[in-house]
Write a structure and sequence with these properties.
This protein has one domain: Rossmann fold. It has 6 helices and 6 strands, in the order βαβαβααβαβαβ. Strands 3-4-5-6 form a 4-stranded parallel beta sheet, covered by helices on one side. It has a two-stranded parallel ribbon with strand order 1-2. It starts with a strand and ends in an 8-residue tail after the last strand.
Length: about 200
């Protein structure tokens, strides 16, 4: 197993994972806002393994915005990390994914659902970046179908993380179990879809 972190040395949960999985887990620094950093991490992975059965794109950045706060810097940052980074990582992992006829899970958000947009919580840049990620999921599913690679987007729920806050309802460990269970039953008919973490379809 491989886990990519922006700053592994400063992440408390990394130490717990290493303690739990030992040599089964390789932790890598990975900055999803840097194509060069993604390439470095991917090269290390490809040197260590010839196949990747499951790739989970779960990096993301979020902050509230509004019409008065729209600016190039924030929009660019949101799209680079939430949309462009995952696309580049998929590109870099194509060979081992093809060897394994593996699966890709892109962690999206309810904010990326057009049906879920509301007047009281429009979430401009973040929602747009996740909607774009959903669009990439759909397109990658068609492109990679010939290789037997399945691709889906998943809404993880409101998780108790630094991004989700202490009032969130979902424990990250519970969501992780749901995502792995969903990936285990992922088939060609599901590829290109958008799902809740419990496996139910999520509205586009």
């Amino acid at each position: 197993m491989f886990a990519g972190y922006l700053k592994p040395a400063k992440a408390k949960d990394v130490k717990q994972l290493v303690k739990e999985y030992g040599k089964q887990l390789t932790v890598l620094p990975m900055d999803m806002s840097s194509e060069a950093a993604i390439k470095r991490a991917s090269t290390t992975i490809r040197r260590k393994t010839k196949r990747v059965d499951l790739l989970i794109n779960c990096a993301g950045v979020f902050w509230n915005d509004g019409a008065e706060k729209v600016n190039f810097r924030d929009f660019t940052r949101m799209f680079v990390v939430n949309t462009f980074g995952p696309a580049v990582l998929i590109r870099e992992m194509l060979l081992p994914l093809r060897t394994a006829r593996g699966a890709i899970v892109n962690i999206s958000s309810e904010a990326g659902s057009q049906a879920g947009v509301s007047s009281d919580r429009p979430i401009l840049a973040y929602g747009a970046s996740k909607a774009a990620l959903n669009g990439l999921t759909r397109r990658f599913s068609f492109i990679l179908a010939k290789d037997g690679i399945r691709v889906i987007s998943v809404h993880p729920g409101w998780m108790r993380t630094p991004m989700g806050g202490d009032n969130a309802q979902q424990e990250p460990s519970a969501t992780a179990r749901d995502v792995f269970a969903l990936a285990d039953k992922l088939d060609a008919k599901m590829s290109g879809g958008f799902f809740n973490h419990d496996g139910s379809p999520y509205p586009w």
